[in-house]
Amino acid sequence: MNLYLQNQKTLYTPTAEAGGVMDIMSVIEQDFARVVAETTEAESQQAADYKKLMNSSEVTVEVKKTEKAHNSKLLGQAKKDNEAVTGQLGEMKEILTAAQEQYDGFVKQCDTGLTFEERMEARKAEIQSLKEALTVLENSGV
Asked: Looking at the structure, do residues 68 and 89 belong to the same domain, yes or no?
């Protein structure tokens, strides 16, 4: 009669000195006590690991809550700043539009459509006609 003892990983072979059923019961009792001890130790270790995990999870949750509250405050401030800057941008656009319109008016007044050379010729002609008028006035005795 061969009996394989699972936890000892050995093949049990009864010998002539074996006491029979009582020895088998003794081995079973020892195996049961060892399994109970191992299971109890494993459960204790797992309970300790679980407690560590829960504690670290609670800390992590509190940190995340604090970060969320802080980020919410930052977001609120950023929105307020954005509104203020958007208002200033609108005002600056109005000022820019007014300045651009004024500039365009000046350009229309100053731009005659003549090139630099043509304006220089026109000035020379105007100066010449003023000189002629001055000469006429001086000769007329006025």
From this structure: yes
CB 142 within 8 A of CB 134: no
Same domain flag for 130 and 106: no
Note if the pTM is more than 0.70.
Answer: no
Query: Measured between alpha carbons, how far is 126 from 114 in angstroms, rounded to an integer?
Result: 15
Query: Can you give the residue range of the structural domain that contains 100?
Result: 3-111
Residues 35 and 61 in one domain: yes
In tens, the pLDDT along 56-96 reads 999 999 999 999 999 999 999 999 999 999 999 999 999 99
Rounded Cα distance between 34 and 26, Å, is 12
Task: List, for residues 2-20, the tens digit of each pLDDT value.
Answer: 444 455 555 555 554 556 8
**Rounded Cα–Cα distance for residues 64 and 61 (Å):** 5
Question: Rounded to whole angstroms, how far apart are CA atoms 5 and 24?
Answer: 10
How many separate domains does the chain show?
2
CA 10 to chain centre: 61
